[in-house]
Design goal:
Number of helices: 10
Strand content: under 5%
Mean pLDDT: 90
Order of helices and strands: HHHHHHHHHH
Largest sheet: none
Radius of gyration: 20 Å
Shape: globular
Oligomer: single chain
Length: 245
Amino acid sequence: MDGNLRPSARTRRLQAFRRRLIRKVPAWYSPWAHLAGTVGVGVVTLFATVPRVVGPSASDFVTIPVAVVFANLVEWLAHKHLMHHRRWPFTVLFDRHTPEHHRVYGYESMAIEHPRELRLVLIPALGVLGIVLLAAPAALAAGLLVNENVGWLFLMTSAVYVVGYELSHLAYHLPERSLVYRLPFLRALREHHARHHHPDLMQKANFNVTIPLGDVLFGTLASTGDIEKVMTRSNGSARNAVRDR
């Protein structure tokens, strides 16, 4: 019986912390407006850039996979070095991510319980816009070095990628009854992200939220054996703590 008390107490502490964070969400906050704003950044960028791509050649469209790879590597670098380490002037990224997001959502407790938790999962819509604007210099450089179509395609792809990142991340944190569990590729990506949420792995594995290309290239892909090992160690530590009480 004592063996069940510690997990229950830990769960209660986690739920209490989650409730405190939700209570801190401003009264004016709307999760649906937040989601619409995030998607809206991508939609507006598409409407602004598509008409400017005029008479593209087949080689111009090579920009799209190049921009996806570039965005994927930036995603890996930012997640590993900014979201898990407090570095000025990006301290807010760390504070919102590691002490809050990772404390609320663990490997076995990924699902949000209330729509207002979107504030704990999604980047602010202005942040999404800011990331797109940060991609603009690279798009400008591509446009100057190659041609205007390449620049607009690069910016367009970057915006769609950021929105895809946000929607993917949200999907991984939806309840088990959601569509995530019905689509094998989303279920596999969710498991990849869930492994990153284990405390023993979050600082060293699975930093890609979308396609785990950066994790493969930089050797930070957590295998099934890795998660089984840390889960066994965690369960053993919990049993020893209960036995030592």
